Give the backbone structure.
Amino acid sequence: MKKHIKNNVNWVGYIDWELKTFHGDDYSILNGSSQNAYLIEEEKTVLIDTVWAPHRFEFVENLKKETDLKKIDYIIANHGEVDHSGALTALMDEIPGTPIYCTANAVKSLEGQYGKRGWNFQVVKTGDTLEIGGGKKLVFIEMRMLHWPDSMATYMTGDNILFSNDMFGQHFAVEEMFNDKADQCLLMKEAMKYFANILNPASPFALKKLAEIREMNLPVDIIAPSHGVVWRENPGRIVEKYAEWADAYQENQITVCYDTMWEGTAKIAHKIAEEVSRQSPDTTVKLFSIAKADKNEVMTEVFKSKAIAVGSPTATNAILSTVEGWLAFLKTLKFKNKKAAAFGCYGWSGEGVKILKERLAGAGFSVADEEVKSNWNPDDGDFAKIPALVKSLLA
Ligand code: FEO
């Protein structure tokens, strides 16, 4: 069912209440999601993006209820990733010659995924425009690396709508569609989780692009991303948030993350959390078992943190595989301006803390010399090292 956005613009996407994971199983979905597609019916009829492949037939059938498919003059593919292009195959079977406006890189990603099907690609660059009648036009803005090399946004003049694709999106199902109708706490939490886990590596590109869009001086009344809510009430708010988040964001928070074999490393983790609170009662402290907690939720907490403490016991001359994998993911997110410290127990060889420090430095963290490395079980001598470790994280 379509949802009205503004004047002759309707949402024609798919609200995915059942979705539990995204990017395979790499991103947890706790509050549903949506794949937003939009239908513009001015003198020209324009479809902006589609939905994920499993919903392609339902999407095309629903679209037929809104318009004669043959009336669609232009398709805009802002991004080739399958959650937005997945219905193109079914749609293009019905209207094979319809021009698809996209970046040169999107031609590569679409043909790479779906094969060379003879689709009528029209390659566009930043500043290119397309007249759609009624004195309105579409302006294309390449969004390279936000978050794929093929990404693009489309701005509609007259109605002043920025179809921003993944940027400003969230994995969040909101049947009411608009930001002012959504649960505000969940909305901002999901927007931040999306940024921290998907867009943060592209922060330098985001800052540059935000400045470029500001210079284009386009009045923006609505931001319509490809996931989650449509920002119609104060859309500048999410733009300001992105400017903050992309600029080495941190809050007054310390997060302790660990895994443990026989509870020794867990004991140190809890003592560190207590000590942070003792030394700095105003600092928010969070603690997670890396093996048990949701990886993407934890990374959102790391994103908010000014410092983290990471613990693992030494196991077979290494750290636990849970922590090794977690640190590999941490590295990909390219967080900046954060401190870290390492801790852990060992029985025999004891290189775990050294490995943790190397991994944390490799992930871009400023690593404290202070550490807690406990032989067998932590004793008073080990716990006595915690205040100095915490002090270095709070400094
Ligand atoms: Fe929502 Fe990059 O796809």
